[in-house]
Every structure is written in C-alpha cells, then in structure tokens.
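Anyone opening a protein record will find just a pair of labelled lines. The record below illustrates this layout.
***
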Amino acid sequence: MERFLSLKKLGRLFGFFFIFANICFAEVVNNSRLDVDKIFFTQVDKVGNKLFAVGEHGIILSSIKGVDDWMQHHVGYKGLFTSFDFSSPDTGLFVGHDSVLFRTENGGKSFEKILIDMERPVSFMKVQWLSKLDALIVGDFGSIFYSSDGGRTWQKELIVDKNFDRHLYDILVSKHGVFIIGESGWILFKKKKSNKWVQIDVPYSGSYFGGVIHNNQIYFFGMRGNIISTGLDFFAETYTSQKSIIFNHYITPSKLGIMSAGIDEDGSLIFFSSGGIAYELLDGFFVSKEALLDTVVSTVDYGNFTVFAGLKGIKISD
C-alpha cells in the first residue's frame, strides 16, 4: 500500500515505509459509464461468487451481478494486465507488461505491488497458482518466476540455459504435472514431485498460445490454425523425455491463429480464432461457427450463462 532517530528506529521506519509504499488501497468505484465494448480484455474468470476481468489501461473489474454492473479497481497502473489467478476468494495475483505484479489478500479491496529483482523489464503473460503457497509466472524471452511463499517473493527459474529466449504464453496444470506453452514449438512439462522441466517433441514447430484439457485429452493450439492433441495419461508417472508420444494434428482455416479455447454449452470443445470465427470439435471434425466477439481470448461459465472476453469487450451467451 522526530528528526533524530536511533539507527534501530530508523531501520524500522524505512521498513514500514517500504511496506506502505507498495500497498495501494484500491479505489473501487461503481463505474456505470465505463463502456466495456471499447476495451480490450485479456481474461475473465469466476472468483467465489464474483466475476473478475482485466485488460488494457490497467483495468481490473469485478462484479457480483453479472456483466451489467462492474466495479472498477484503480491501482495506479495504466498498462496492459495480461493475467490473474486466485488461490482462494481472497488471495489473488495480477500480472501485466512492464514486470507488473500486484497481490491482493482481501478480494481486491487493496493491492500490494510486488517487486521482482531482474535485469530488465519483462512482459508477464500468465500467472498460475500451483497450490496455496506455490505460484508460477511466465513471460517474454524465456522468463519463468516461481514463488513458494504465497506470491510475496519470487525467484527466476532456469529451465533450459541462460540463452533460452523463447516467449512463453500459458501455464496449464494437470493431474500429472505442469505444462508451459510458448513460441517456436516450445512446450515444457514438469511431472509432479519433480524439479526438472523437459521439452516435449511436438509435430508443429510454430508458436503455441495455449492449452486446454477435455475428456482426458490435452490440446495445444496456436499459429495458423494449428491444434495438436494427445491422451493426457501419456504424461503419467512413467513419462520420460525419451518416451515417444503420438499427437493428432489438426489445421483449421484460421489465418492468424487459435487464440483461446473453452467448453460449449453442450459439453463440446470450441476453439476461438480471430475475425469472429470459432471452431467446434464434433466427433473428430471441426465445424465453424460465429463467435460473439471479433477475438475471444477468455471464457467462463457464470450462473446460467457463459461470459466471453476479448477484443472489443465482454459479451454473454445464455
């Protein structure tokens, strides 16, 4: 969030100032004039009984009444928030460009700005809790940071070597371990109870933007409409980097790429491309359909409807 002092008291004062200077009590306002249709949102998710959404211009929104009554949390940051995740309805982490990391432990009433020691600013792309104390952040130029104390302090992880510079976009937690997904065909996997990341040999060497697990299958999606999938149980305890994995490889007509994926109301898997196009996977075939937004980058079920967030706003589908 006395001119003359003993050295001990001065140290305590500096300590208090450091803590206070990095905690901001969020100005929470009912912003009925906020035009969400003009905002680029990067994520929407359900947290307890609330919806949270983040995006450009340092926007953090929350609502307990759906998408028509947003509360805006002002934290003094004007850049792009890219991701957030909560370990409980109270404790959450929010990341963005310019090495920005905020932590809340009261559901967004106040935020603490967390500073990570690094050589240069990093664009954080994804934050993910692995447990109530362990969390992971990935970003550009091979950046991976790990916390084991609830997101208060962070250390850089060396996963390949010091020259590894691939941009990393997503973190996917499964029953067998954790996946990190990035450009140039880089998909990394770390088994449960292991400290070693291994690279997975995949059939497409272009950029992957994310992953999704559905019916015990894992899908990775990315540039030029490429989607690959395989059985999740290939990555069970017996998995090694030398183990050969058979992938299904699909290429949809998407010109730019598949930006996100979700579960449709009928339980089928749906992938969202740019240009307002979505591809639903039905009996092994992809069927194109119209999306509610030009580019959907995040979806979540909330009550009896689905919330879609992305380029040009937030929409709902009954």
